[in-house]
TrEMBL record:
Presence of keyword Transport: yes
Source organism superkingdom: Bacteria
This protein's name: Cytochrome c, class I
Keywords: Electron transport, Heme, Iron, Metal-binding, Periplasm, Signal, Transport
PTM summary: Binds 2 heme c groups covalently per subunit.
Signal sequence extent: 1-24
PROSITE patterns according to UniProt: CYTC
Length: 239
């Protein structure tokens, strides 16, 4: 590599480290934009309009895809949606596919984020999420159930419902393959905005433990009132 290029790369790296953004592992950023967004009042019609951008990948129902490429976001706590969206926007969580669509140039400022995240949180969830392979009653399911009780309930709740106030995501009803990917990234330090206490809690998990516990989570029933009536349901706002 030539010396001038090397020098300029070093300068850039130093600046990134100093600004604390690009390479930081930060679970809770200072969050000016996040906190500002959460103080606003949502507008339903504007939410529908902004969501069109998101629907290209997360689908108009917000259900994502069973193969886990795109997560279900319908029914997620609004606080969690705002945190994740601003983390992605600010570079605390890597998501190269979505990054350009999350930027202010694409969707707008805090008001647009308030509108769209509120809208998403009210969407009915997928009654047919992607599940792991082990049905209730199998030893793998039972093992996962025990792991969940011992390691996850204190944050994600006894039914995986999460905690809106603390920014703990709802994980019930999420696609198995998406969750396995996130869990592995969190355990192995690849998801930079992960909660450090979760990282500690799961660091001894083998890949098998991971699959068993996520299998169990993927099979926790979602309350009926939060689910769409059938898997053929179409979001009526986009008729
Ligand atoms: C080009 C495709 C694409 C578009 C458009 C897109 N997303 Fe995403 N989104 C993704 C992918 C892929 C992931 C999962 C990335 C990963 O595995 O870490 C994701 C993840 C998320 C997450 C994190 C979910 C979680 O459970 O932590 C949120 C929240 C989210 N998207 C919201 C939005 C919103 C709001 C919009 C519209 C403004 C949007 N997305 C537009 C592809 C997209
Ligand atoms: C100390 C609290 C804590 C514990 C214990 C914990 N988690 Fe988490 N978990 C979190 C938080 C907070 C996040 C979101 C981190 C972020 O903001 O990016 C998360 C994220 C996740 C995600 C990704 C969700 C998404 O939508 O992207 C999965 C899956 C998950 N946890 C599963 C588990 C399982 C299974 C266990 C038990 C084996 C567990 N967690 C234990 C706090 C915890």
């Amino acid at each position: 590599m030539n010396k001038r290029l090397m020098a300029s790369m070093l300068t850039i790296t130093a600046a990134m480290l100093a600004s604390g953004s690009a390479f930081s592992n930060e679970w809770m950023s200072k969050g000016g934009e996040r906190d500002e967004t959460l103080k606003l009042k949502p507008n339903h019609e504007d939410g529908i309009e902004v969501f069109e951008v998101c629907a290209a990948c997360h689908l108009t129902e917000g259900w994502g895809t069973k193969d886990g490429t795109f997560p279900q976001i319908a029914g997620q706590h609004q606080t969690v949606l705002v945190k994740q969206l601003t983390d992605i926007r600010e570079g605390h969580r890597d998501n190269p596919t979505m990054y350009p669509f999350a930027k202010p140039e694409s969707i707008g400022g805090p008001q647009a984020m308030e509108d769209v995240t509120y809208y998403i949180s009210t969407l009915k969830m997928n009654p047919d999420n992607g599940k792991g392979e082990w049905a209730e009653g199998t030893p793998e399911y039972e093992h996962g159930k025990q792991l969940f009780k011992d390691n996850c309930v204190k944050c994600h709740g006894d039914k995986g419902q999460g905690n809106a106030k603390k920014f703990y995501p709802r994980i019930q009803g999420q696609h198995y393959k998406y969750m396995v990917r996130q869990f592995e990234w969190i355990r192995d330090g690849k998801r930079r905005n992960a909660n450090p206490d979760m990282v500690k809690q799961i660091k001894e998990f083998s890949n098998e433990d991971m699959k068993h516990v996520i299998n169990y989570v993927s099979r926790i029933p979602v309350p009926k009132e939060d689910l769409a009536p059938s898997k053929d349901y179409v979001n009526p706002d986009y008729d």
